[in-house]
Every structure is written in C-alpha cells, then in structure tokens.
Amino acid sequence: MFCPFCRNPDSRVIDSRTSDDGLAIRRRRQCPQCNGRFSTTETASLLVIKRSGVIEAFSRDKVVSGVKKACQGRPVTEADLMKLAQRVEETVRQSGASQIDANDIGLAVLDPLRDLDEVAYLRFASVYQAFDSLQDFEAAIGQLRTENRSENRPDQEFRE
C-alpha cells in the first residue's frame, strides 16, 4: 500500500476493525517515512461471471435494481430491498467461491424474494426462469400454496 502523502511503498498497521456488516476490515496505517496516517478498507472480492463471459465485481445495487422491477406497485420498501440484497450477498459468499455465475445469483434471489412478496417473486421467477405457458405459472402458484399450507398449519392435515 503506497502512502498517499509521500508515495512510500511501505506502511504499518496501527489498528484493525471489522465493519458493521462484518464483510470488510478497516485498517488504520502509518507511513514509516513521513509518519502520515491514513485508513484503508479491505474486502474479499466477489466476481460475477455474466452469460456473455464478461467478469465484473458483485454489486448489491444491481441486485436491488433487478428485483425492484418485479416489486413495482407492491408494498416493498427500499429498506426491504437492501436487506434482500444483503441476504443474497451473504448466501453467495457462503459458497466460498471468489467467482460466481450470474445465474447462481438469480437463484439466490428467489428464496428471499418469495419471503418478502409472493407476487414480486412470481414476476421475477417468470422472467428469470423463462416461464413459457400458463402451466408454468400454475405450477409456481401451486408450489407457493403448498409451502404456505405447510407453514401455516404444520400440525394439521389440510383438506380442499
């Protein structure tokens, strides 16, 4: 790390702390040559491999903007979307890989979005999973109904 004051290529760490979300480390450094102090932030890089083969850094903002379209007109706040993006990033980072396919990020969005808003989930899934027919929607709705029944009545048998 070059000193931002004198460009000396060496510095020593005075203090290290994790950030609020635990995904970054803030280090306070001092230059041995000019005694200037400065801070650095270190994060583990997470790269996304897009369908075109292009590789770019993971961005929570891109997750939010992709999901925001599915949530238009729904009672979902910006804070809800930020929490969803954080959950997606945590899920993706748990894989331990430094590079992940964009497709895997889309899959990681589905569960938290279903928990957040079922209509938005159906909208996102219909595009992401390329629903071709009404049967695809019916199957997804049927799966949601089944999951809701098991969550709402775990000790009772559900009858139609």
From TrEMBL:
Entry keyword Disulfide bond: no
GO biological process: negative regulation of DNA-templated transcription
A Pfam family hit: ATP-cone
Domain of life from the UniProt record: Bacteria
Cofactor note: Binds 1 zinc ion.
ATP-cone domain span: 46-136
The protein's required cofactors: Zn(2+)
Signal peptide: none
Zinc finger regions, unnamed: 3-34
Recorded family membership: Belongs to the NrdR family.
Function description: Negatively regulates transcription of bacterial ribonucleotide reductase nrd genes and operons by binding to NrdR-boxes.
Protein name as annotated: Transcriptional repressor NrdR
Protein source organism: Candidatus Lumbricidiphila eiseniae
Biological classification of the source: Bacteria, Bacillati, Actinomycetota, Actinomycetes, Micrococcales
